[in-house]
Amino acid sequence: MKYHITTYGCQMNTADSQRLASELEKLGLCATPDAEAADVVVLNTCVVRQGPEDKAISRLMQLKPLKTKNPDVIFGVMGCLVGVREPKALREKFPFVDTFLPPSDPSALVKLLQQRGVQAETGREDYWLERDATETRYALQDADFILPAHERGQLVSAHVPIIFGCNHVCTFCVIPYRRGAERSRSLGEIAAHARSLVAQGVEEITLLGQIVDRYGYDIPDGPRLPDLLRIIHDIDGLERLRFLTSHPNYLSDELLDTIAELPKVCEHIEVPIQAGDDEVLRRMKRGYTVDDYRALIEKIRARVPNVSIATDIIVGFPGETEKQFQGTHDLLQELKLDVAHVAMYSPRPNTASASRFPDDVPHAEKERRRIAIDDLQSEVVGAINAKFLGQPVEVLVEEKHKTRWKGRTRNNKLVFFEDDTREWKGQLAHVKIYWTGPWSMLGTLEAHNALTVSGNGSVH
Ligand code: SF4
After folding, report:
1. Is 174 touching ligand 1 by the criterion CB < 6 Å?
2. How many Å apart are CA 241 and CA 158, to the nearest integer?
3. Which residue's alpha carbon is at the smallest distance from atom 4 of ligand 1?
4. What is the pLDDT, as a whole number, of residue 143?
5. Is the CB of 169 inside a 6 Å radius of any atom of ligand 1?
């Protein structure tokens, strides 16, 4: 039997799809890139804004004729469109879908397949050890998480969810309603997951959570993110460790010092501000002020040398005036952050902002504000990246892109270089930068290919 998964949305969805694929392969299914050739078709959905939700529904309707043609095809819908509650309305609206899977939980589809008589041909361990002895160079004894076959021994960088859900309930955000209350995975389970990935060739792990720096807060006397970083850091064979997304209120001094101390933890922090105006932040219920955020950025830079910082911005939140938007623009000009992901506000069902505040900023104005922030960031990041000219950097190579190798520096800068003399995928390359732009850089391999500066090579 073959399966096909289409994934929309964030890294958490990518990790959820990977876990689903892993479970399906334990039952003996193989991946196919062609939905028409699949016996099991799953759509992993995102509803963070109206755009991705529309896209997911339109894809679902596009796939519907497959079921009419062959009623034996099993259809699954997963993720935030489904949510953690019984999806009665979806069942009524899309009766051709066989099963609805909440985010991060593939068990309903696995059970359905088992009920229909699909069982692993042999015991799980034996099945995989046998295949791996012949197909890859990696030993999988005691593996807790088995990558789908097409990624095993191929994937350089993987995501590991460490905390599901969110308790914060920012007024614009649908995530708490769809992914439920926060639930941390145990240290042991996460470590086993990470060790299994490294045994299968993964060199870089990114720990994931809606508020990743709240890891362990839901467990009485529970561990914290710094404890987890130390444990994962000690896995032999792991080269780099990252985590995202942080909330400004939980980026503790201890966490920042741990990043600075542990060599494998990369100097890159994703910490959204969302708006550069106190009144807008209050109505978003973010729990901090612009000055708090400013002080946090100063502290991050003081404690983590050569750090790069990414933020998220929402433009056109209900009632956002031109002056308030200008506050966001001015703050980004002042702080000079490495990345700003900009989204236009879109009212989401059940959220406080959708029910309390009219969506009164016209679409064209939201678009203008988005472009203004993008243009500003392009200048800011262009200037930050120009400081890398002539500098050596360490690049973890992810893949070959056309004629060039593509990878990232420790602080998440995208670098391309050319070299036909060897296979670089999964290797650390030492590269000297000769061209920079806001979104990427070009470099040449260092003749001796040894880094001449310590740390991450960042110069800003
Ligand atoms: S912190 Fe706020 S924006 Fe982030 S997932 Fe939770 S509710 Fe949504």
Report:
1. no
2. 10
3. 210
4. 58
5. yes
Q: In terms of Cα–Cα distance, which of 83, 101, 126, 102 is closest to 41?
A: 101
Candidate of 12, 168, 283 to mutate for ligand 1, largest count of ligand atoms within 8 Å of Cβ: 168
Q: For ligand 1, say whether the CB of 163 is within 6 Å of any of its atoms.
A: no
Q: What percent of the chain has pLDDT over 70?
A: 92
The span from the CA of 314 to the CA of 366, in Å, is 9
pLDDT of residue 447: 79
pLDDT tens profile 59-93: 999 999 999 999 999 999 999 999 999 999 999 99
Give the predicted TM-score (pTM) of the model.
0.91
The amino acid sitting at 319 is G
pLDDT digits (tens, 9 = 90+) for 11-45: 999 999 999 999 999 899 999 999 999 999 999 99
* Cα-based distances in Å from 252 to 77, 106, 168, 261, 312: 38, 34, 17, 14, 20
What's the pLDDT at 385? 98
> In the prediction, which pLDDT does 131 show?
42
- Residue 397: its pLDDT value, please? 97
d(CA 273, CA 271): 7
Where do the domains of the chain lie, and which CATH numbers do they carry?
2-121 (3.40.50.12160), 137-266 (3.30.750.210), 273-285+296-386 (3.30.750.200), 392-445 (2.40.50)
Q: Using CA atoms, how far apart are residues 26 and 269, in angstroms rounded to an integer?
A: 35
Residue 197: pLDDT band with limits 50, 70, 90: very high
| pLDDT > 80? residue 448 | no
Does the Cβ of 259 fall within 6 Å of ligand 1?
A: no
* Ligand 1 mutation target, pool 166, 250, 280, 348, most atoms within 8 A of CB: 166
Phi and psi at residue 374, in whole multiples of 5°? Answer: -60, -45
pLDDT digits (tens, 9 = 90+) for 275-315: 999 999 999 999 999 999 999 999 999 999 999 999 999 99
Helix axes 322-335, 363-386, angle to 10 degrees: 10
Residue with tokens 């602080």: 411
Q: Distance (Å, rounded) from C-alpha 303 to C-alpha 269? A: 12
- pLDDT confidence of residue 82: 95
211 pocket-lining for ligand 1 (C-beta < 6 Å): yes
User: Using alpha carbons only, what angle is made at residue 122 by residues 185 and 191, rounded to the nearest 5 degrees?
Assistant: 20
Give 241's strand partners: 205, 265
Query: Please, which residues have CB within 8 angstroms of residue 458's CB and are 6 or more apart in sequence?
Result: 267, 306, 307, 308, 388, 393, 409, 410, 411
Residue 438 CA to residue 441 CA, distance in Å, equals 8
Question: CA torsion sign, 262 to 264 to 268 to 269?
Answer: negative
For atom 8 of ligand 1, which residue has the closest CA?
A: 173
